[in-house]
Amino acid sequence: MSQDKIDVLQRALTREKAARKQAEKILENKAAELYEAKQNLEKSYIELEGLLNKTDSQLQGVFENIVDAYVIMDLFGNILKMNNPAINLLDFEDDKEDYNLLKIADPSELQRVSESFQTLLKKGTLTDFHLKIITKKNISKLVHINASIIYDDGIAVAAQGIVRDITEAKKAERQLIESENRLTTLIINLDSGILLEDENRKIILTNNKFCEFFKINTSPDLLKGQDGSNAAEQNKVLFKNPKTFITRINEILEKRTQVIGDELEMVSGKILLRDYIPIYENTVYKGHLWAYKDVTLRRNYRKSLEAQKQKYSNIIANMNLGLIEVDNHDKILMTNQSFSKMSGYLEHELIGKNAGSIFPVGQGSEIIKNESLKRQKGKSNSYEVKIRTKSGELKYWLVSGAPNYSLKGKIIGSIGIHLDITDLKNLELQKEQLLTKLEKSNDELQEYAHIVSHDLKSPLRSINALVSWIKEDNVGKLDDLSLQNFKLIDATLDKMEQLITDVLNYSSIGSNTGDMADVNLDEVITTLIQIMYKPEHIKVTILNKLPTLKGDKTKLQQLFQNLIGNAIKFINKKEGFVKIDVKDMPTHYQFSVADNGMGIEKKFHDKIFKIFHALNKSKESTGIGLSIVKKIIDLHEGEIWLESESNKGTTFFFTLKK
Amino acid sequence: MKALNILLIEDDMIEVMKLNRTISSLKLNHKIIEADNGEEALVILEKKDELPDIILLDLNMPKINGIEFLSILKKDSVLKYIPTIILTTSNNQKDLLECYKIGIAGYVLKPLKYEDYVSKIEKLLAYWSINELKQI
Fold this sequence. Notes:
The complex is a heterodimer of chains A (about 650) and B (about 140).
Chain A: H1 3-65, E1 69-74, E2 79-82, H2 84-89, H3 110-123, E3 125-134, E4 140-152, E5 155-165, H4 167-188, E6 193-198, E7 203-206, H5 208-213, H6 228-235, H7 242-255, E8 259-265, E9 271-281, E10 284-294, H8 296-318, E11 322-327, E12 332-335, H9 337-343, H10 347-350, H11 355-358, H12 364-376, E13 381-388, E14 394-405, E15 411-420, H13 422-473, H14 480-509, E16 517-520, H15 521-531, E17 538-542, E18 548-551, H16 553-569, E19 576-584, E20 588-595, H17 625-635, E21 640-645, E22 649-657
Parallel strand pairs in A: 17-19
Antiparallel strand pairs in A: 1-2, 1-5, 3-4, 4-5, 6-7, 6-10, 8-9, 9-10, 11-12, 11-15, 13-14, 14-15, 16-18, 19-20, 20-22, 21-22
Helix pairs in contact in A: 13-14, 14-17, 15-16, 16-17
Chain B: E1 5-9, H1 13-25, E2 31-35, H2 38-46, E3 54-57, H3 66-75, E4 84-88, H4 93-102, E5 106-109, H5 114-129
Helix pairs in contact in B: 1-5, 3-4
């Protein structure tokens, strides 16, 4: 080994020695420091322990005195510790009870509870957890939970939580929401247009009606937050006066005092009524409410009502009928112009007077009294009354009265409408007089006919008697020709007598028509045929049973007698027949009398019913028979016509009312 | 057969002749008192001791007509008992009803033929001849 090497090794050793010495020295220092630190540590531990004890008891106090329920549980949910509010909340007897909190949760919540528990374990905290629980007393409650994990040396050992009963609060909150919803629905569907703006005219709320009024095609919700002044600017064209629409809004907004009932006329003819209500919160202006109401209909109603009223007032004032309104004591309350004209009294002369005592003449007062009693029972009526006008003229009025009701439906008087029927009444009286006169003159005429016929018949009797006497006194002295002539005188007298009888009959038909009764024609005509003169070769038959109808028995008999007699008279065949028949029609019976006589030419069909139109100047025929027939048929509201063929026969048809 | 005192009230001369001739031709002994009209008849009837048994009365007469005369007669306490028969050409129902209402003993229509007249009068007088009449 070389010196050098030894030297090097020696130097290195020396350096090592020195380094070790230095390290030992440091170590010594450190040990001393450590000791000192340990001393300090011990001291501070004791301090800390004291401090901890103090905090612990402080915490215990907080824990026990905390208002909210406080629960500590292990990680399986078993309750380790809880304070008094928790005992109350969960309906326990005391804090010594063993209980697993998971059992409290409402069965429907189990899923959420286990999920939340996982979250709690993972994150160490759980906040704002809402849970439905069922307490030991079986009461359902809603609770709010804030929970955290308790760690020991970094290992989760337990969980603690503050539980708050929010059942009532939640209920109240739900009620609030409900009532808010209701209010919103109400506003949305309100019949008025609503616009709520804040102090910067930002729209807070509006509703359907508002959108409808202003022709806004979006839902009211979408308008929230928009600028109300822009909307107004856009919508001003909808109004008849756009400029004032805007200036008025600005004016109102500047004053910020309530405005009710601004009327706005729209171009469409709609009339809106606008209210402005400023909203103050503790005297601070917070915005305002606009309310729009459509009053078009109401305004028009009022207009048409006024027009209607005007119309009726005009009618009342100008109508030609006198109008008078009285109270329940017949005191006049109102009259119109026409009534003044009719009565001669001015309105002020009549008001307050008793209507029933001013005008009537004779029975009038009594009539009016009775009629107004009827009206007070609620009956309308009309009656005639004779009155005297102011100038003393007698007039007839037709009064139509109706009770007048108050708004409550009570009768407060009556209203009478008066028509002057004096002219009409005079005409009626005149007519009555004429009728009486006519009746009288008819009677007189009838009487006259009888007297004339008597006066005409008397000379015939005298002639007959005288001729008889000449014959008696000259028996054997008269030649055949003279006797023949006397016979002709007798025949002429017979015809004259018949003529007078017929004329008298004809003139009697129109009189005394009051004897209409049920007439059994079958019976009457069968008897008639039996007693009538019939030549051997002529057969008279009734084909169908004749009906019973209302009529004058004597005249109906006369009718058939004339027709059957005529038929018999003009039969020129060896074998003759007269057939009587009847057909049932809706309102009438149609009769027929058919013969196989000589027939009547068509051109005479109308003529034969006229008086004195005998076609055959025979000694039996006076030409009045068919006129009498026609007159009797007229009297029974029927018609007569005929069908005839020359030399084959004639059928007379006639109808009589049922 | 009893002879009757007959008051004929008739304005027509030939009618009077007819009755007279009828009675004479039938050979009856009835006595006819003639009155031209109602007024004359009332004068005759004033003599209460010579009152007729029956009255034959025409209706159509001047001055007092038949019905008026009948009314006066029936209001008289004595004369109302005399049977009064109407003899007329009028078959006016109104007259007929009125006469029966006031009170008559018969209503005979004058026929057209004289023979019929004779026959009617014969029966009429025969009937009244066998009647009991009030003795006045």
